[in-house]
Amino acid sequence: MKINIENYGAKTFEEGLPAIAIAKELDADAAKKFCAVKAGDKVRDLSYKPSEGDTLRFLSFEDEQGAQAFHHSSSHIMAQAIQRLFPETKFGIGPAIKDGFYYDLDSTHIFTDADMAAIEKEMKQIVKANYKFERREMSREEALKFFGDKGEIYKVDLIENLPDDAVISIYQQGDFIDLCAGPHLLATGMVKAFKLMSVAGAYWRGDSNNKMLQRIYAVSFPDKDALDAYLFQLEEAKRRDHRKLGQELELFLLLDEGPGFPFFLPKGMVLRNELENYWRQQHALAGYQEIKTPLILNRELWERSGHWDHYKNNMYFTKIDEEDYAVKPMNCPGGMLVYKSKPHSYKEMPMRVGELGLVHRHELSGALHGLMRVRCFTQDDAHIFMTGEQVKDEIVGVTKMIDSFYKLFGFPYHVELSTRPEKAMGDPAIWDIAEKTLAAAMDDMGMPYTINEGDGAFYGPKLDFHLEDSLGRSWQCGTIQLDFQMPEKFELTYTGADNQPHRPVMLHRVIFGSIERFIGILIEHFAGAFPLWLSPVQAKVLSITDRQAEYAAQLAQMLKEAGIRVELDDRNEKIGYKIRAAQTEKVPYMLIVGDKEMESHTAALRKRDEGDLGAMPVDHIIARLRQEIADKI
Description:
The protein is an alpha+beta fold. The protein contains 20 helices and 33 strands. The strands form eight sheets. The chain has an eight-stranded mixed beta sheet.
């Protein structure tokens, strides 16, 4: 039979050969390397026997779907170990998740750290035994009887709620059998490294009316080096946690009096203002005009925009003079009203209008997370009104601006094109045009992108920009949304060259996304050690003894007058203590002065990441810092 194999082309094999045998003919290490196989659009076990004309893609741990098969197999290994050690346990579900897996368990035994170690030890025995994962199918009646007889009430519940035409399958490795659709690895021996991470509570099916189960989270990898690297990254992420550093560096507060509503402290405001000042500077150069729209607007506006029907659950409401009002969750409806406030001509197009607008969105308390998930945040919104002929050029222009912003901070990024969601406003044909326009702009720039089906905004498709931080984590920040719907709903017009009214096309776009969230990302990306231009305190002047206190104060004043953010540390402490304090505060530069520096009108310059740079004239130091600030390095 002839099989098409990705990266190998069409090849002929003996009929009835399983995918793993085919893989071994292509790669001697296939049994160690591949986790699953994709046949057409379905991921299957490597025991799958392909048919004539099938297109196969072999999946390793490096492939997302291969990793899912690996992690899901790992969850079965963990469940088998738990069944051996705690045989009264009833099992819920054990899916693969990002970076690992979990299993939900119903047990009278409360799982402890000591239990986790015992489970890991038993898992090692199961891996060493190298049990095969064997799949077989059952009828609904057989499956209900099999799991019912075992007292597995959660498996029975799952089976009863499967569609009538569902294929019911089980997987067995050694003495453990589980209800599962698969796919799985060939055998348990492939899971060389794993670690149980934590135990949490979880309601069955996520419903608080159901019983609370224990959920054990874990991770697994094909080798110990990969596990060690992952655990190191976790520790590094803890060290960089913006909530911890935000408090230590006195940037912001998260208080019980306002959950989800962050308080920015003076140093945090410096950081925030620097970001906003740069935003304003770059947008002014790019021809944007800045506006400010109200925080609260009436119900009629939100009904007109579609938010009342499509976004109501995320909004806050109030009454004024017995009329319904809403706190804005987005800036765009206010931007529509600004546009409508006077007539416009095609000669004004494209009309670029920006707003650093505070918005409020209702988030469940359990979803709140530092600055990353809050209930109020400032969006660096801009709305571009344009003619149909200008759309592609404006998309390209915005993309180039986003690129320049992210490169400034050292963020690599990738782009996703998010298409029409299930609940969308407007004509599907208009959506198709909008999606093709976004794709064409990316193609013209030679910028790669992936398709994210069904994740567009309710009023239009979008390009989402996912930046990558220093730990390799992805954050969705920038977005460009192409909107043919809002101009229609708000009856926006401009007078064309033919002296007739025309409907503008509209772009919604953000670069930072949320100022608060972007600050959280920056804190973790730089581990609080910001580049000089962003640092709340750019330099500290440290006196060695009281004799230099007056000279140190003069130096601090000189730096301040030169526009450098400076603090003076003339405390009666040892110089080593003062240096360590400045390092802990992550101050980029220290100017250390003793008798020798005072006599020569110099300062010993010390840089945060480089150490002692030697004594220099003060005017040279100021020039150096001013240049570095101007260059934003």
